[in-house]
């Protein structure tokens, strides 16, 4: 399926607490299915453990501006913003490379501009670095996190929101 076809079929709407299970499903499937090239199984398990406490995950989302991408009634992507931080971004493997994350980020970056932020930052996983680079985010620093005793690296990337990025 081409990106145009999926883009047309994808609806973006605001997250509600009743969506939590669907979001946790997208989160786990995304890490398992789309991050294996950059993170080994032990690292993916440590990353996914953030969803073990569903209640805490839900509370974290409720403090942020969260958008859901829905296709044929099914959640296929989730993204969140906390001020000028693009925090959560996960797409289900069956909807990958079809413009879902682009659509979610377009909406959150527009929200951030409206809220008066002139830059957006994110901690991009190695699986998402090319995606963010394509959107005009520049690498600022490398981060090392330890979760469940396992080392996970990512990169802080920053985009000016008041500068047009050539397509
Ligand atoms: C990174 C991620 C969110 C991208 O979602 P997506 O919906 O597939 O992205 P899009 O279709 O909007 O991609 C837009 C463009 O970004 C670039 N891009 C996206 N994924 C890419 C990849 N895996 N490798 C290289 N470039 C990529 C491409 O230029 C793509 O355009 P194209 O498909 O026409 O070539 C998704 O792969 C994902 O959920 N990964 C696992 C979880 C993760 O790492 N989340 C980020 C946490 S910070």
Task: Describe, in plain words, how this protein is organized in 3D.
This protein has helices at 3-9, 20-34, 41-48, 54-62, 100-114, 129-134, and strands spanning 10-14, 65-71, 74-82, 85-91, 119-125, 138-147, 150-160. The protein is an alpha+beta fold. The chain has a domain at 3-117: Aminopeptidase. The protein has a 7-stranded mixed β-sheet with strand order 1-2-3-4-5-7-6. β6 and β7 (150-160) form a beta hairpin. α2 (20-34) runs antiparallel to α3. The model has no long low-confidence stretch (mean pLDDT 94). Coenzyme A is lined by residues 3, 30-31, 34-35, 89-91, 96-102, 122, 124-125, 127-128, 130-131, 134. The site of coenzyme A (COA) has 23 residues, from α2, β4, α5, β5 and α6.
């Amino acid at each position: 399926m081409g990106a145009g076809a999926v883009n047309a079929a994808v609806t973006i709407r605001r997250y509600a607490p009743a969506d939590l299970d669907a979001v946790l499903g997208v989160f786990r499937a995304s890490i398992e299915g789309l991050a294996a090239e950059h993170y080994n199984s032990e690292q993916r398990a440590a990353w996914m453990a953030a969803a073990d406490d569903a209640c805490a995950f839900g509370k974290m989302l409720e403090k942020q501006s969260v958008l859901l991408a829905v296709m044929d009634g099914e959640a296929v992507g989730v993204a969140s913003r906390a001020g000028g931080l693009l925090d959560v971004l996960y797409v289900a493997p069956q909807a990958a490379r079809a413009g879902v994350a682009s659509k979610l980020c377009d909406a959150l970056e527009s929200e951030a501009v409206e809220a008066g932020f002139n830059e957006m930052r994110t901690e991009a996983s190695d699986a998402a670095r090319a995606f963010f680079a394509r959107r005009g985010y520049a690498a600022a620093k490398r981060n090392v996190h330890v979760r469940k005793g396992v080392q996970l690296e990512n990169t802080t990337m920053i985009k000016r929101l008041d500068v047009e990025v050539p397509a």
